[in-house]
Specification:
The complex is a heterodimer. Chain A is mainly alpha-helical. In chain A, helix 1 packs antiparallel against helix 2 and helix 2 packs antiparallel against helix 3. Chain A has a domain of 117 residues. By secondary structure, chain B is α/β, with parallel strands linked by helices. Chain B has one domain. Chain B contains five helices and five strands; from the N terminus they run E-H-H-E-H-H-E-H-E-E. In chain B, helix 2 packs parallel to helix 3, helix 3 packs across helix 4 and helix 3 packs across helix 5. The radius of gyration of chain B is 14 Å and the shape is globular. Classes of the chains: A mainly alpha, B alpha/beta. The interface between A and B is medium-sized, with 23 and 20 residues.
């Protein structure tokens, strides 16, 4: 504003060279400002959209596990279903982690935790003994262990969401 | 340097739907896979100085008990050293099983081998191979009671 005011002060009505320099400076500053704002804003919006995508994937994995654990706990699945469910989840989690690590500098333990739960549940004697049955009835001991695993997994996913929010794009 | 010969087997050729640990627990068990497929192929790899590749992909998943029984029995009959030398397990779909077998199953069953805790046989099997003092011998090593 000050510079514009000074330019208007020129009584002759013709802009001097210093006025032109001031005008160009205002224009350049304005253009740079707009460019920087747009780029920063776009980058921020893109980052946010990518982070939101990964966070929604975390929520989806959490929900899948919640439904699965709930039904296994209530003796609603066969051993064959459990076996196949773990394979599908392994593929889903591996693909999620692969893309996540490609985009962000994040080192999480989700697939390792998933592997631990898979190994734990698919090694139960109940699953082997009742392999031909339509549903598997877990012992109370196995159910208690399963609850502990579920709690740890939920905590891990919450930590992962925090990490995604804090993470920098590669 | 001469390249090692390779023998490849795919678990899906045994069954796409693999089962539980023992034959008596369900179809296509780990015990059955070992006695019908794995033992003979590993013995062949030993005889021909080859590497045995076992592909776990294109099945409907596994119970860890299936893998434990099949690959554990292999360690019991041939020893951890020979298994590590000749066996390569591959899986693009579930690579964590490969890690489990090579890190946990091989170690656990080598301990079991040293303590002579024999595998459980739930049905009668044909004679199978075992490595004894550097020689491979086919015999019914465990009687089904």
């Amino acid at each position: 504003m000050d510079r514009a005011y000074l330019i208007c002060q020129n009584q002759s009505g013709i802009l001097s060279s210093s006025d032109w320099i001031a005008l160009v400076e205002i224009f350049v500053t304005l253009v740079f400002g707009i460019i920087i704002l747009t780029v920063v804003q776009n980058r921020f919006t893109n980052n946010r959209a990518v982070k939101d995508f990964f966070i929604s994937e975390c929520a989806s994995i959490k929900t899948d596990y919640k439904v699965f654990f709930d039904q296994v706990y209530r003796n609603k699945h066969s051993a064959k279903y459990i076996q196949e469910w773990f394979k599908v989840m392994t593929l889903k989690i591996d693909s999620f982690e692969f893309t996540l690590k490609k985009e962000f500098e994040i080192y999480d333990n989700l697939s390792s935790k998933h592997g631990k739960i898979k190994k734990f549940l698919t090694s139960r004697t109940e699953l082997n003994e009742q392999y031909r049955e339509k549903i598997v009835k877990l012992t109370q001991g196995s159910k208690s262990e399963l609850l502990k695993e579920h709690k740890q997994l939920t905590t891990l996913i919450a930590q992962l969401i925090v990490s995604i929010n804090k993470a920098k794009r590669k | 340097m001469e390249e090692s010969k390779i023998i490849t087997i795919e678990v899906k050729d045994f069954d796409e739907y693999t089962g539980p640990r023992y034959v008596t627990q369900g179809d296509s068990s780990g015990e059955e896979f070992y006695h019908r497929v794995l033992n003979e192929n590993f013995a062949e790899a030993f005889k021909t100085d080859s590497i045995l590749i076992v592909d776990l992909d294109n099945t409907a998943g596994f119970l860890s008990s299936f893998l434990d029984e099949a690959f554990g029995s292999l360690v019991y009959d041939f020893g951890a050293e020979e298994v590590r030398k000749r066996l390569k397990i591959v899986s693009q779909e579930e690579p964590d099983w490969v890690e489990m077998i090579m890190n946990d199953v091989v170690v656990d069953w080598e301990k079991r081998r040293k303590s002579c805790t024999q595998p459980t046989i739930t049905v009668e099997h044909d004679a199978w191979f075992r490595l004894k003092k550097g020689k491979i011998i086919k015999h019914k090593w465990i009687e089904h009671i």
